[in-house]
Amino acid sequence: MDKAAVREILDKVRAEGREALTAPEGKLVCDAYGIPTPREGLATTADEAAALAEEIGGPVACKIVSPEILHKTEAGGVVVGVQGAQAVREAFGKIVENAKAYHGSPTITGVQVQEMLGGGQEVIVGATTDPTFGKVVAFGLGGVLVEVLKDVTFRLAPVDAAEARSMLDGIEAAEVLHGVRGGPGVDLDALAAVLQKVSTLVTDFPEIREFDLNPVFATADGASAADVRILVETEEVTEPVRPSREEILRVMDRLMNPRSVAVIGASDTEGKIGNSVMKNLINGGYAGAIHPINPKAREILGRTAYPSIGEVPGPVDVAVFAVPAKFVPAALVECGEKGVPAAVLIPSGFAETGNQELQDEIVEIGHRYGIRMLGPNIYGYYYTPKNLCATFCTPYDVRGGVALTSQSGGIGMAILGFSRTTKMGVSAIVGLGNKSDVDEDDLLTFFEQDDNTECVAMHLEDLKDGRAFVTAARRITKKKPVVVLKAGRTAMGARAAGSHTGALAGNDKVYDDILRQSGVVRAPGLNEMLEYARSLPLMPTPQGENVVIITGAGGSGVLLSDACVDNGLSLMDIPPDLDEAFRRFIPPFGAAGNPIDITGGEPPSTYEATIRLGLEDPRISALVLGYWHTIVTPPMVFAELTVRVVEEFRAKGIDKPVVASLAGDTEVEKASEYLFDHRVIAYPYTTERPVAVLGAKYQWARAAGLL
Amino acid sequence: MDKAAVREILDKVRAEGREALTAPEGKLVCDAYGIPTPREGLATTADEAAALAEEIGGPVACKIVSPEILHKTEAGGVVVGVQGAQAVREAFGKIVENAKAYHGSPTITGVQVQEMLGGGQEVIVGATTDPTFGKVVAFGLGGVLVEVLKDVTFRLAPVDAAEARSMLDGIEAAEVLHGVRGGPGVDLDALAAVLQKVSTLVTDFPEIREFDLNPVFATADGASAADVRILVETEEVTEPVRPSREEILRVMDRLMNPRSVAVIGASDTEGKIGNSVMKNLINGGYAGAIHPINPKAREILGRTAYPSIGEVPGPVDVAVFAVPAKFVPAALVECGEKGVPAAVLIPSGFAETGNQELQDEIVEIGHRYGIRMLGPNIYGYYYTPKNLCATFCTPYDVRGGVALTSQSGGIGMAILGFSRTTKMGVSAIVGLGNKSDVDEDDLLTFFEQDDNTECVAMHLEDLKDGRAFVTAARRITKKKPVVVLKAGRTAMGARAAGSHTGALAGNDKVYDDILRQSGVVRAPGLNEMLEYARSLPLMPTPQGENVVIITGAGGSGVLLSDACVDNGLSLMDIPPDLDEAFRRFIPPFGAAGNPIDITGGEPPSTYEATIRLGLEDPRISALVLGYWHTIVTPPMVFAELTVRVVEEFRAKGIDKPVVASLAGDTEVEKASEYLFDHRVIAYPYTTERPVAVLGAKYQWARAAGLL
């Protein structure tokens, strides 16, 4: 890679105040990074053009080169399929003539004479600068597929070879690249190499704002970019400030494991937020020091009150704010003077009500004093390992491995209600609100190394710094699943963009692809986020892709199969010996294969024998059970036998994911609860949900490289 | 339409024992139905070919015509873009030579010389014979879109002009037909006319098994089929026997409203099916006569028992079978002799266990005596308006407007459990099992005219007679919503097919398109089927497309908007006067527009005023409410005020669909129930489900032509 050559071209373009590179400049940039382009040359006279065409051989394309003319075709500046010296000369003349007619007096650098490509598959390779994620690289098929069906895929740049290859399979029409109608496939390695080079180029030169290779002709022997379009940033490019992992952890640890908490605006008056927060800290059982701050009180709820945080004896780790917005800046300065590392800003009345100025003011104070701030405009946060309930809601006491965060207060309340009603074991619930400072990547960095957290679920509407999020997510998802509900996926609308790739990036697909690239599981809706969060930590990680359905109801078996396909699970192709082994337990008219239909009238022993075999055989990775309520095997009998067998195998060190769908009268509700309590994920009246949860576990395990 | 011409060609083809028409024969068929094709002629010598080409003008395509050669390209029998007399002569010679080399001694009818089409959009128009639905017509774009992305749409043939037009918008890439990259759109009327003509043709001639126009070139001025492929059925084509609507209703009425029921195999022994059925009939409160049939008893559960049904005094409307499979045929003959119109066959041990013979035997008996049969292999059926519980499950007593049916017993049990736990108002629950006789279209025909039923939900794995289903569904869905859970949508696999259209039809898309065409709402899963069934009859029919979201939580608003887009709902574009009206009620930093974000800290009066305005303004058709649990407006306060306002408007004759998503602590569960009880569809902890239910209502209303 010849960085110096690119640097020289870009400096020249910027020095001339241009936003776009000319085609020959674009070709030089491609050459410098080894991106293949057609043979070509620049002709300044008709005779030069004819000589170039002769040298290239075969038909050529002739294109105007003029800094003033960006839309060459529109200006009549392109003639394709030109063959023979005379025809090339004529094309040269016509192009120059058209250019003058189009623009008046353009600076004509010359006419580009280019080898005609074709015969392969037209694809688009591009890169753009996403407002959330920065440099992203894009890939799609040319023509209708990308323009009408938006069949395009994105990755954070730079991509490595494996990621580049994954992009080729990341589009709906991927099959086209492997050859259709008996035609040959394209050279996937060559195409992936182009993607990787483009991603390196825009990473090396952040001032390249948008980059289009459109079309690239991909053939069985290689890939060559027929047209290059490069736009540069005319303004200075700055990267966001990112604290180091150690800096983040130092303060996050103080926030989540504080030795002392001060409540600014603590109150004795029932119904006030400062009263609720005090009560929740005390009733929640927080064991550290609690300091009410209130200039008008000497004692609040039995604790000594101080007129200002400065007067609290000893250090304060967390200051929870329960005062109106207008009082926040002054109190925050006092926190800074006191050396408080973390502030929890419950009050609303900042950016969300249009008061951006007030928010900017507190951000500035935070920076000045090195205070990390949660909020403003939040319900507060819970961290159950410390019995810490710094919110105006009620305490939550079912400890467990799930950490949940929400950008919206309403969603936070839904998290709390759902958690309570399902008795979900929770490590933390955190409100992020306006995200003036602490955001998702800070929390992911903390939860990654927090032994109390096994799974993270996040509701978010946007990311302040998508790249920092991806970095943190990539680390944690290697160890723990992260579920993300990204709201606003249909409302982003198009952005003005100067390139094809830029225009295509203006939709939810960028978030979707990059979240997947970072290893997180994206939940399609709120309820799925909650159910995934509840279930994922209860399930063991599958050791392979072979899913087997065992069902007492043929009808459930069909629906469970549908759900497996919908959720990207692989129904195991049962080998003959295993098929025979299953057949020994089921009636002759039952169906082995997969689903294994044990039929409806069977006694508990048939369920037990087949489940046992499913757990025993090492080729089977996960079980999906379909239960049918009968008098012969009532719901609780099924639930108890399943738990007994599963626990027996767990004791032997064999722990496979087992999920169950229970079809029956209302008794199946209690049976499902019993199963859930024993880490068998079970739901009544639905064949989709247990499979969706298993699918989420698989999605995580694959992304984490565990399969 | 020249039917006689087509008849003559088809008769000739079948007389010759051929399965495929030659290209010239295909062209004549197209001509007879006014399907445009390129100018062309048949040449038997090289000179004739040259003369034809001269007459057509421009470049031509030359194609071998030989009954033995079906794959012309493969045989080297096609040369395209031939221009000039000499070139045409050479092409003729080469084609004949290739054909001989390919086949040995083919019958060479000649060489087809055809006008070259191009420049337009390549599309595929076809028809095939679906095993479930019979003649279906297909439409898709040519090339990768249809081959790789399977972007194709189907309708039951024949289609009217409106249905044909709807097909053009029924593909993902529909935008292409309207013109892309500034190009002109195609002549949609011309293309729709081709579709309609093809559908008429295959309807008029059922022996046409498969029909491909591939490609059709669609341009701004018309549409012309460049290649025609027609395959005929070599065996006799028979239509299934379909009882008339009156015949169906006569027996279905006896089945659902019987004056007397006999239980064959009634028993005094606890745990036996014949005992459960007797108890459920009696305890369920059925007021007609109940006759136990048992040769060994004189009385069962206080009712006189008879040794055989023949000895029951007076007529019997329904015979419920609770005897082992092997005893069914003899007892069924006795029912026939007695003149019983309807038999309910609970026993299993028929086709589902591989005993097809036994099933064929009972079907024959049924036909012989004119007995309509439900089952075999079912749990029985409920019809609550008659307190009729002819099943071995327990009685169900919450009467209401929902009729549910299931093909599978397991799913039937899930229906029962879900109904009970949600207190769903039910008119009927019917098991269909093996569907040896009575099937979905019989039930739809009954439910259509049953005043006790307002909504039908059906679980099905296949349809015995898809065309009869569509006919019945089209009638009833004009009046009442029908929800269908079609299982097995991912497992149909490909079928061997002789045409492109035939191959494409081998997937779930045929079911999906034709179910939609018939006006039913397809539920994506079991839980959705149950939730739609529960909610649809409780909601009024919307009067327009304008949906408005009113939310206390901005976060819920975003998720509710996502859900609206996902479910095909139109978020109203709020006009300035209405925007101003809403703004009067909400804080200055709240957001009008849509969602209307009243913000989180608002008192009940703000919810009330905005809901009131939403109901009042005639431009708004439906409301989606997003509630956020706060101390200022607790859950039950929100629920009660919403019900009060909605009921006030209902009393004034204004009844709009109102659905709600409640985000909050566990109290929102009770509030949701209260809302549901008052016909405001409300769910806690989910933003998706209330909107999905509203979406289902809209989908039905649109299909019924009510919007």
Q: Any overview of this molecule?
A:
The structure is a homodimer of 707-residue chains. With 707 residues, the first copy, chain A, is an alpha/beta fold. The first copy, chain A, folds into five domains: 3-115, Dna Ligase, domain 1 (2-Layer Sandwich), CATH 3.30.1490.20; 121-232, 2-Layer Sandwich (D-amino Acid Aminotransferase, Chain A, domain 1); 244-379, NAD(P)-binding Rossmann-like Domain (Rossmann fold), CATH 3.40.50; 398-538, Succinyl-CoA synthetase domains (Rossmann fold, 3-Layer(aba) Sandwich), CATH 3.40.50.261; 540-703, Succinyl-CoA synthetase domains (Rossmann fold). Chain A contains 23 helices and 30 strands. In chain A, the strands form six sheets. In chain A, strands 19-18-21-20-22-23-24 form a seven-stranded mixed sheet, with helices on both faces. In chain A, strands 5, 6, 7, 8, 9 and 10 form a six-stranded antiparallel sheet that branches. The interface between A and B is large, with 83 and 82 residues.
